[in-house]
User: Fold these one by one.
Assistant:
Number 1:
Amino acid sequence: MTESPQPPRRQSLGSVFRSVSASMFGVQSSRKHEEDFAHGSAWTYIVVGLIATIGFILGVWGLVKLALSSVGGDAG
């Protein structure tokens, strides 16, 4: 009896977001990094990476506007 090859395991969207977040902050483990390359789709990581980067930029922008408005500066 021969074993049928297992279909490639796909990563969940939550797992991709966790991997991208860990990579952005430089705390990605080598084991997880290898798993991402073995099972992940490049397009999924690119799209999630762009969304995370835009979210980070907008978050920093919002915090700066909040800080400026709290000290009485004209934040536009």
Number 2:
Amino acid sequence: MELTAVPLIIGLDRAQETSMLKWAFVFLIIAVIAGIFGFTDVEAASATVAQWLFGIFLVLFLGALIIGLTIGARLTS
């Protein structure tokens, strides 16, 4: 059983999900570097963007997981 079609149900493919997670980590690294150097405005903005992107990715992941488990349960029963 292959679950690659599950993310397509919510409108994102695997490349877009990976890209979103990558950007969350990029903004997290920018926030940490800015925090080390004391750029508080850049740090706060980058941390906020990283938190939003991580939250969006987490919601999409959980949605795909629930849909995948539901479809998987229907296919096996």
Number 3:
Amino acid sequence: MLALLARTVIDGPSLEVALAEALIALLLLTSGMLWQYGHRLQPHASASRGPDVDRRPLRRIRRRGPGLETDPEPTPSLREALAPAALRAALVPGRPVFGNPWDRETDMFACFAAVTVIVPFLLWCGGELTSAIFGFGSRWSLGVFMIAALVGASGFMTIVGRERTSVTVDVLAISAWILLGLIIAPVLGLAPPATAAIICYAVILVIMLGYVLRVGRFETAFIRTISWPITWSLFALCFAYLAYKLVLYQ
């Protein structure tokens, strides 16, 4: 990235072009690092569980007691997951279980895609939508936009970081997250003054943290996986800033 910036200064293109090139390089470098990190964690996690151990049926035995079916349930189709009975069952609140999210490569790349691309553009689309509906301005201030991106990333990393229980719960959680990003977050960020918006977002962050710590159960101690929220929070702030300056509001 330093070489790209130096070449830009010598050759004369704008600083925004240099930052865009640096962003692409950072994306490629980070994705490679996460891929290697996931591969390095996966054998260790598998070895620590022991051979031929399926964690999901074991958790079902501990929760439901002995003498019940121990075979893993097949993954339902999307049509089955959206059936009325499945939706009613998914709406029953339960305590989320948090393991070590770094053990799952798909979750790492889902968070990477969310905080780098999906969250900034979801907020921008939500701002345009709510501005057309309610009539207030659609242009975010930089600080409010970054804090809103942090809140969105926090919600997504909480959804992805918990242990899976059913496809229906995942569908409902992601749908609610998208709805909040399109409607609620832009209204909170664009309608009131910037200071009031930041306070509202800070309260939401505290509520989410309290939910995770007080309601959630941890298979791996929270302090041992603290790198998960710290990493994606920093990514969210960084890429929200870059998206704001280079793409959305040049």
